[in-house]
Each structure stands twice: as structure tokens, then as C-alpha cells.
Amino acid sequence: AQENRAGAKSLQKDVEAVFESVQVESKYKGRIITATGPIQQDAQPLLHYVETIHAWSAPGLFAWDRLDKGSALLLDHMPDLYGDVADFGCGWGALSRAILKQNAVETLTAIDADALAIAAIDKNITDPRFTSQWRDATESINKTFDAILMNPPFHEGGKADRHDLGAAMIDNAMAHLKPGGRLTLVANAHLPYEKNLPAYQSLIEQDGFKILTCII
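^ thats the sequence. predicted structure below, dont judge the formating
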């Protein structure tokens, strides 16, 4: 299922290129796409190269064809990074690409619950320091990090705010920082993530977004 504004029409086209039988129901400004095998021999990949972001992406991913304002703000105020770094909820890789521009970064682990996001970021990044994990960023990870960056989600399906999703990611990130490690995140200014950070600094608030950082 996908919202129309999030690329449902393009997603339908891609699914129709892969499966022989596809049924579509349109309702509530979205589409339910039901596909039945077998997969066609000439199946087309679901990823698209998007010129506006110079990256592979796909309809359905967050800000799939643009750099969202929150991530853009975080990129403008990227902290100095070193050692083992993670990108929680990496999407197609906007933050990860910037992280790897810092030479002191030894490893980067990109994590996302969406398999399509992992497929995209794996295609976008070939740096040997990079690895990805297809997993929920609220789950335990067998590694700790010197720094974690994130642009946590705050809703599901464009509905009402679900800041508990971002809060769960923040709590999990704090549990996976090394002593002296730093979490840096961008969020909508009205979301109460400060209460999940024991000792935080507010780096900037601009255009409805804020950047928070916390060193444990």
C-alpha cells in the first residue's frame, strides 16, 4: 500500500513490470497493489536513478526524489566525526554519503527497516568503510558506535504524529553509543525528543526543524 503523494502511481508501474498479475484498489488518496506470481522473466528493477539527488532511489522511500529540509539542515551542521559511525534510518543514503566525506570515519553502518532503502543505499555507496544492515533501528545491534546520526520518522502513512517511533530509535541509539559517544539528530521543532536525551545541546532551530546533540 502507498499514498498517492508518496509515489503510488510509479510504484504500481514498477510492480506491473515485475509481476504477471497485478490488481489495484484506489481509496483514501492511496492505492493497494496486490501482485501475484510468477515473476516475469524481463523483470525491471524497482530502483530509479534520480538526477535531482544524483542517487538511486524508489517511490515509497522517505523523500525518495529530493533532499528533505531536515536532512539538509543536518548536513549544513554536520559534527566532526571519527571512528565507528552509524546512520539510523538511512533511507537512500543522504546522510551516509556526507558522513563518508570525513576522513576520520573508520566504519559506517547504515540501518533501515525497509529492504528497498537498503537496496538503494547499497547501490549508492561503494566506499569500503560502508556496510548496511536490514533491520529495525529500534532493535538491538551487535555493535557500539562513536557517533550516531539520524533523521527519525515522526508519523506512519502521513497520519497523526507518532513521535514514539522516533523516541524508540533515540533510546536505542543511546544504548549503542560507546563511552563519550555522540548522538546527533534532526527533528521537527515541536517534537518532544529532549526528554529522551539525558544531557543535550540544541545546536540550531530553523524553518520548523531543530538539531539536538547529546554526548554520553
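The helical segments are 8-18, 69-76, 94-99, 115-124, 163-175.
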